[in-house]
Specification:
The complex is a heterodimer of chains A (about 110) and B (about 120). Chain A is mainly β. In chain A, about 0% of the residues lie in helices and about 55% in strands. Chain A has strands spanning about 5, 10-15, 20-25, 30-40, 45-50, 55-60, 65-70, 75-80, 85-95, 105, 110-114. In chain A, the strands form two sheets. In chain A, strands 2, 4, 5, 9, 10 and 11 form a six-stranded mixed β-sheet that branches. Chain A has a five-stranded antiparallel β-sheet with strand order 1-3-8-7-6, with no helix packed on it. Chain A is globular. The termini of chain A are far apart. Chain B has about 120 residues and is mainly beta. Chain B is about 0% helix and about 55% strand. Chain B is built from no helices and eleven strands. Chain B has strands spanning about 5, 10-15, 20-25, 30-40, 45-50, 55-60, 65-70, 75-80, 85-95, 105, 110-115. In chain B, a hairpin with a 2-residue loop joins β7 (about 65-70) and β8 (about 75-80). Chain B is globular, with a radius of gyration of 14 Å. Classes of the chains: A mainly beta (about 110), B mainly beta (about 120). Chains A and B meet through β4, β5, β9 and β10 of A and β4, β5 and β9 of B.
Chain lengths: ~110, ~120
C-alpha cells in the first residue's frame, strides 16, 4: 500500500529565508508524486508533479522538488520565502495504474514571518 | 476550458439532519470524479471515486454516500449527519490520459460544520 509522511505539521520561516517542506513516500511501484497548496478558505492547487521524467521538478511560484528514490523522498523547496507563500502544503502519491486516486500526507502549514 | 463547480461554499447543519453537496464539471466528458474530506488537523482523505455514471467506489466506511446521476455530476449525501462529519469537503476530477499524467482538478470546497 502507498503512504505519504510529511515531517512537521507546522513550519515557520522568515520572509526571504529558505523554505523546506519534507515528504517521504512509500510505494511498491514507481510512483507519481505531487505537491498541492491550499490557501485559506480555498481549494487545492497543483504546485508541481513528478511523473518519472526529470528528478528535479520545477513548479509554480518558484517552488521545486527533487525526487530521490534512494531516500524515498520528495521534499519541496523555495530559495526565498514570500509572505504570500503562507498556506497549507500537501504531498501526495499515486500509483501509476490507479488514475487520479491520490494518497495525501497530513499537510504542513507554512507560516512566513515579516 | 474545463471548470468544476462545487456548492455550497459553507454549510452549518444540526446533528441528525440530511446533507447534499453537489459538484459539476464542465468542458470535459467521462471524467473520473472524487470526493475528499479534510478534517481539522488532518490530511485529505479520499471518500468516494467514480469512473462512470452509477459507478461509485467507497474508500472508507462512513455515514456518507455518493451518487453520480449524470456524467458530470457528483453528489455527496447523508441521511443523518454526525458531529464527526464536520470538515472541509473537496470535489475533484481527472481524465485518464497520458497528457494529464494523473492531475487532479479540485473544486473550491465546502466547509461543513455539524452542530
Amino acid at each position: 500500500a502507498q503512504s505519504v509522511t510529511q515531517l512537521g505539521s507546522h513550519v515557520s520561516v522568515s520572509e526571504g529565508a529558505l523554505v523546506l517542506l519534507r515528504c517521504n513516500y512509500s510505494s511498491s511501484v514507481p510512483p507519481y508524486l505531487f505537491w498541492y497548496v491550499q490557501y485559506p478558505n480555498q481549494g487545492l492547487q497543483l504546485l508541481l508533479k513528478y511523473t518519472s521524467a526529470a528528478t528535479l521538478v520545477k513548479g509554480i511560484n518558484g517552488f521545486e522538488a527533487e525526487f530521490k528514490k534512494s531516500e524515498t523522498s520528495f521534499h519541496l523547496t523555495k530559495p526565498s520565502a514570500h509572505m504570500s507563500d503562507a498556506a497549507e502544503y500537501f504531498c501526495a502519491v499515486s500509483d501509476q495504474n490507479q488514475g487520479g486516486k491520490l494518497i495525501f500526507g497530513q499537510g504542513t502549514e507554512l507560516s512566513v514571518k515579516p | 476550458s474545463q471548470t468544476i463547480h462545487q456548492w455550497p461554499a459553507t454549510l452549518v447543519q444540526p446533528v441528525g439532519s440530511p446533507l447534499s453537496l453537489e459538484c459539476t464539471v464542465e468542458g470535459t466528458s467521462n471524467p473520473n470524479l472524487y470526493w475528499y474530506r479534510q478534517a481539522a488537523g488532518r490530511g485529505l482523505q479520499l471518500l468516494f471515486y467514480s469512473v462512470g455514471i452509477g459507478q461509485i467506489s467507497s474508500e472508507v466506511p462512513q455515514n456518507l454516500s455518493a451518487s453520480r446521476p449524470q456524467d458530470r455530476q457528483f453528489i455527496l449525501s447523508s441521511k443523518k449527519l454526525l458531529l464527526s462529519d464536520s470538515g472541509f469537503y473537496l470535489c475533484a476530477w481527472s481524465v485518464d490520459s497520458p497528457a494529464t499524467n494523473e492531475k487532479l482538478f479540485f473544486g473550491s470546497g465546502t466547509q461543513l460544520s455539524v452542530l
